[in-house]
Design a protein that fits this description.
Structural class: mainly alpha
Number of helices: 8
Strand order of the largest sheet: 1-2
Helix content: 55-70%
Largest sheet: 2 strands, antiparallel
Radius of gyration: 54 Å
Mean pLDDT: 77
Number of strands: 2
Oligomer: single chain
Shape: elongated
Strand content: 5-15%
Length: about 230
């Protein structure tokens, strides 16, 4: 075999081996790229940020007023009896004043209707008496002479038995109306005043106790919650 050819062949083989060996070594030494996004996500998920630990803030005190103001309770009870007491938490006195108010206003309305009926009946009796007297005046000249004065004629009309009876009934109904007006106004203002006081005492730290005594009287007391003594 030609020696020059052999040397050239050996040099080519050696160059090929050196070229492939260097490429393999460089590939082995190059670092493998890592998924930094996943590592960052894992780190953020597992890392806990320490929070500052300090004294806990006290809970806010509820200073808001519960229920209506005294003036609002008074106005409510003026509109509807017992409404102010119920709004202020007086659930016993509220229905009582409501019952009294409804009863008094109902009786006042009933008395006014009865007064109207009595006045209508009296007017009918007066009309009948006037017609009767006018008939007598036309038929009897002596009676006509006696009743020619308007005052005398009126006295004769009012002296009729039926007119007198129904006039007295009208006066009685008027007196009843005046009485129920006074009662209704009294209970209405008493109800409003009680609602005003109930709203004032709604946040008072005490309890009112009302008890009936053996002798028939009423005992009123108040219980207060006092703080315990420190020893």
């Amino acid at each position: 075999m030609n020696p020059a050819y052999m040397r050239r062949t050996c040099r080519l083989l050696l160059a090929s081996v050196l070229a492939f060996g260097g490429a393999g070594t460089a590939a082995a030494q190059e670092p493998v790229p890592r998924d930094t996004a996943a590592v960052r996500a894992d780190t953020s998920a597992t890392t806990t940020v320490p929070q500052a630990v300090g004294p806990r803030a006290p809970a806010p005190v509820d200073t808001t007023r519960h229920g209506p103001s005294p003036r609002g309770a008074l106005l409510r009870s003026l509109v509807v009896p017992g409404w102010g007491q119920l709004a202020a938490g007086a659930y016993v006195r509220g229905p009582i004043y409501m019952t009294i108010g409804v009863t008094s206003w109902g009786m006042l309305g009933k008395t006014i209707r009865k007064l109207g009926d009595a006045e209508d009946r009296r007017d009918a009796a007066v009309t009948a008496a006037v017609d009767s007297l006018m008939t007598l005046v036309r038929e009897d000249s002596l009676i006509a002479e006696q009743l020619k004065d308007p005052i005398a004629f009126r006295e004769a009309v009012m002296g009729d038995s039926l007119v007198a009876h129904r006039t007295s009934l009208v006066e009685a109904r008027r007196q009843q109306r005046q009485d129920w007006i006074a009662y209704t106004l009294f209970f209405t203002f008493l109800n409003a005043l009680d609602a005003y006081v109930a709203a004032h005492l709604a946040d008072f730290p005490g309890e009112l106790d009302v008890q009936r005594r053996a002798d028939g009287g009423v005992a009123v007391g108040m219980r207060l919650a006092l703080p315990a003594r420190r020893e």
